[in-house]
Amino acid sequence: MKRFIEGDDREQGVLFPDHLEDFVGEDNPVRAVDAFVDVLDLADIGFSDAAATGRPGYHPAVLLKIYVYGYLNRIHSSRRLELETGRNVEMMWLTGRLAPDFKTIADFRRDNSKAIRKVCSQFVMLCRQVGLLNGDGVAIDGSKFKAVNNRDKNFTPAKVKRRMADIEASIERYLSKLDAADRNEPALPPAKVARLQERIIKLKEQMEELKAIEIKVQSAPDAQVLLTDPDARSMRHRGGGIVGYNVQTAVDIEHHLIVAHEVTSSGSDQGQLVKMANQARLAIGGEEITVVADRGYYGGEQLLECANNGIITYVPKPLTSSGTKRGFFIKQDFIYDAKNDVYICPAGQKLTKGAHRSDRQSDINLYRHLSACFDCHLKSRCTTEKLRRIRRWEQEDVLDDIERRLEEKPDAMQIRRSTVEHPFGTLKAWMGYTHFLTQTRKKVAAEMSLHVLAYNFKRVLKIIGIAPLIAALKA
């Protein structure tokens, strides 16, 4: 067969050897990785220095370059990174043909968790220096990521009781088979009897293990024990459950860069708003910051603290009232008159402030009308009690301000969704929709920082290009 492109003969020698530089173009992203790591003060960041004695180790810059390049190219495993150092020309160029073994690569990520997280923060600072973070605002959200922990290795009080009941039922079933074999002729074969007895012994051993685990579960603060990854937690996820971590991110609204992130063991977003907003403000470097979040972050104390710290929030109120389902008026149907400090009910009556609640919540006021409710024609749609009472927090003006801002900016939740959901989808796609490779929150935080760094790196390369990024790094 003729007229096809032919390759070089494997046995053909060359007069002049090839240079690695010839295989890496000027517009290759690996050059940006090399420039970024080279400008970092690794000792100041916290990477360990070489030992004074013994065999010299690999420079932290070499191992960090391997990881940054690997995560940029969706290569997360230390064993796969070891393979790439020996066959990938770009990796050879990046490391100077050095090829650390997988254990050295894995230990570097394990032993430098805090420093790796600082590297991620350093890149965010670079984004701010090149003008990609102008302080327009951030969107905050959390997403569940699976841990290296099988659900069968997660124990709660209900799971322990259920498994104990299953084991007891299995033991009873095997014992009944042995009893039936003794009563009826012919008896079971000796080999089968031995297998049944062996299964009973193993089940009793499992029962003893479960009893020991039950004690640990009862003493655990959140009544959970995980055998593989003790820091992971069982969480609700898309109508089911997942054993993993809740990763919080704050994403820049303009360029969709992740300016702050945090790996948490909490299955809820409650209580995360202030912490993430402050981290985002510190990363952007502004006095004030605008934050958009979903209903999961709504909380009076959190929103009040944000307002006092110069954080402008857009957080919708959760619809938790059961009155709507029953056809009753809800609190939103009562109009608050701030000037006169009264509520106007749907019937047009004024509900005035009464005594404080009797359950020791001194910052909650009750509003009611002492006589109008008795013969009101709308009472059947309002309450089954004698009087309809409206509870108002003394700092509820802050919440009212948030509602007014949301009414003035009706597309705020759409902006939030299009901003913060995109990075999560991208990160999970890069991970193959699987789980973290490391265990414990400290190591998972380092792994997540590498994912975030790779995501931000790709975003910046897409926005400004390779050459301008390298020029900014060298400036």
TrEMBL record:
User: What sections of the sequence does the record tag as coiled-coil?
Assistant: 164-213
Q: Which residues form the Transposase InsH N-terminal domain?
A: 19-110
Domain called Transposase IS4-like: residue spans: 231-457
Q: Which domain of life is it from?
A: Bacteria
Q: Please name one Pfam family that this protein belongs to.
A: DUF772
| InterPro entries xref list | IS1182_transpos, Transposase_11, Transposase_InsH_N
Q: Which UniProt keywords apply?
A: Coiled coil
PANTHER family reported in the protein's UniProt record: TRANSPOSASE, TRANSPOSASE DDE DOMAIN-CONTAINING PROTEIN
Stated name of the protein = IS1182 family transposase
- Specify the species: Falsiruegeria litorea
* Taxonomic lineage: Bacteria, Pseudomonadati, Pseudomonadota, Alphaproteobacteria, Rhodobacterales
